[in-house]
């Protein structure tokens, strides 16, 4: 199929439909509002259902219902809206409801701004709501990648019976790039025998909830959830990395900032400084093991984020004290500049930072 020029948010909707999404429940919020706008027209044309809920809380609970019935469903929002959905997300994780949730992050905290941000990292990778639970969390860096990850994300949600987060910053939602919608690969998925599809008086009713009043029963349920999360850690880590063996400085960034650090890397190499890059594609599970492949020439790691510093904690865990970890961050919708990153690279390589 030939490539088409699309805005990121519209591509999200098109990818979801391509993946077989039949139900979208949402409530508009900038910078993700084009997602429900696109779905309101395109999803009914594709035989699905779009519903603008009265609130974010209502939308995520509609997702709970549709996902519990075995349908492929999705919701999307931006940072404060995702915060409102957290109660429904922890319920969905506890009840093992497959669904896809898109967060086009904006600057925060609170209402913050409508500009891009990456300050929802902790919320996205540590569960976000109450209880011990995890959600696969993908961080696309281009429109093509968000399309591919959403199509794959629906399969992962069904395979693991778990919510999947697509964690992009508002810049990814607002830019336009050429994108190709490839035919999804056929994946063997377990049948949804657990879904609440009606018994037709042929079987016992399926019951889906996250309520276990007996401590022993909840212990067993939570242990099974932990086994599932362990499988995700073993099988679902995704990242991009290059130049690590010879690098003097290693840059770590995801999403929009990963695009910016590549420009800074080229500028540093023109100055004779060897730079490597690690770009996590899954924020959870985080690619800790790749830090063991950094060569002996490295003098330090520079983590770049549009936040006060959140992923930097995982970078420190990954490198386990073997190298100093530095941070370059912007907040409030400001985007890091290649010049500021290059200045930090030169200081680290020169031993002055």
**What's the β-strand tally?**
14
Q: Give a short account of the largest sheet.
A: 7 strands, mixed
Q: Please, what is the average pLDDT?
A: 96
Gyration radius from CA atoms, angstroms: 21 Å
Distance between the termini: 49 Å
How many helical stretches?
11
Q: From the helix content, strand content and strand pairing, which structural class follows?
A: alpha/beta
Strand content: 15-25%
- The percent of residues in helical segments reads 25-40%
How would you describe the overall organization of this protein?
The chain is of the alpha/beta class and 353 residues long. It is 40% helix and 19% strand. It has helices spanning 8-18, 34-45, 56-68, 79-95, 121-125, 143-160, 170-174, 215-235, 255-270, 311-319, 338-350; strands at 4-7, 23-26, 49-52, 73-77, 99-105, 136-138, 163-169, 176-179, 239-242, 249-252, 275-280, 282-284, 300-305, 325-329. The strands form three sheets. A seven-stranded mixed beta sheet has the order 3-2-4-5-7-6-12, with helices on both faces. Helix 1 packs parallel to helix 2, helix 1 runs parallel beside helix 6 (143-160) and helix 9 packs across helix 11. The mean pLDDT is 96.
């Amino acid at each position: 199929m030939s490539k088409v020029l699309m805005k990121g948010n519209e591509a999200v909707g098109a990818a979801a439909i391509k993946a077989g999404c039949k139900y979208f429940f949402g409530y508009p919020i900038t910078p993700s509002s084009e997602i429900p706008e696109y779905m309101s027209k395109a999803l009914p044309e594709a035989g699905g259902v779009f519903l603008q809920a009265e609130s974010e809380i209502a939308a995520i609970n509609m997702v709970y219902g549709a996902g519990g019935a075995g349908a492929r469903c999705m919701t999307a929002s931006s940072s404060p809206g995702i915060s409102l959905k957290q109660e429904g997300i922890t319920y969905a994780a506890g009840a093992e409801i497959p669904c896809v949730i898109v967060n086009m992050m904006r600057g925060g905290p609170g209402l913050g701004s409508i500009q891009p941000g990456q300050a929802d990292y902790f919320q996205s990778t540590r569960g976000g709501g109450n209880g011990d639970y995890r959600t696969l969390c993908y961080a696309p860096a281009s429109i093509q990648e968000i399309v591919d990850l959403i199509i794959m994300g629906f399969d992962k949600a069904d395979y693991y019976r778990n919510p999947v987060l697509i964690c992009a910053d508002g810049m990814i939602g607002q830019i336009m790039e050429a994108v190709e919608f490839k035919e999804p690969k056929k994946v063997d998925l377990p049948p949804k025998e657990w879904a609440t599809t009606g018994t037709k008086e042929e079987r016992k009713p399926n019951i889906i909830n996250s309520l276990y009043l007996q401590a022993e029963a909840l212990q067993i349920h939570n242990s099974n959830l932990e086994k599932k999360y362990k499988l995700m850690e073993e099988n679902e880590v995704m990242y991009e990395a290059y130049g690590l063996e010879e690098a003097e400085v290693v840059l770590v960034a995801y999403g929009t900032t990963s695009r910016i650090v590549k420009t800074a890397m080229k500028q540093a190499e023109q100055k004779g400084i060897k730079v490597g890059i690690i770009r996590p594609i899954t924020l959870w599970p985080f690619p800790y093991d790749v830090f063991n492949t950094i060569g002996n020439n490295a003098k330090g790691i520079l983590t770049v984020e549009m936040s006060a510093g959140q992923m930097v904690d995982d970078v420190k865990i990954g490198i386990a004290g073997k190298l100093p970890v530095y941070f370059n961050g912007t907040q409030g919708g400001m985007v890091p500049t290649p010049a500021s990153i290059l200045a930090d690279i030169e200081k680290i390589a020169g031993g002055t930072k």
